[in-house]
Amino acid sequence: MKWIFIAIVIIGMIFIPQIDFDVLSAKPSNLQESYVTRVVDGDTIEVQIDGNKYKVRYIGVDTPETVDPRRPVGYFGKEASAKNKELVEGKAVRLEKDVSDTDRYDRLLRYVYVGEMMINLELIRLGYAKVATYPPDVKYVSIFLDAEREARSTGRGLWAE
Hints:
It is a single chain. By secondary structure, the chain is α+β, with helices and mostly antiparallel strands. The protein has a single domain (30-156), classed as CATH 2.40.50.90. The protein contains five helices and eight strands. Strand 1 and strand 2 form a beta hairpin. The longest helix has 14 residues, at 2-15.
């Protein structure tokens, strides 16, 4: 009986998709249109909303440091910043709020979309960012963790050897 259970678990793991992107297919209705005026680093951008500029910190991700003068540039930090620029700089984006509006530095906390792509998730999936969640803003944490596991197991970005 024990062996049957183990076999079922193993077979189930083989056929279960690693990342459940269906959670993202339900389009959020509370998206705010904006335009990226500048990429600060791998996980922070500056946007323009109704003529006003705001800094936006991506929810749920952390990329290696590149701009803090008190810290050295982190491994893969320049690459993460460059990828973020490639994905969003000069583009129209949509911003999704979770629970918190801003962080202690008065940056907007948001999930950021270009078209149907969530940039937060894409940076993790490609190995440019690690998952970093701060409750109560945890809406997509399970998807982010799945994407990080996949990036690690395939040796992408930060996880390359």
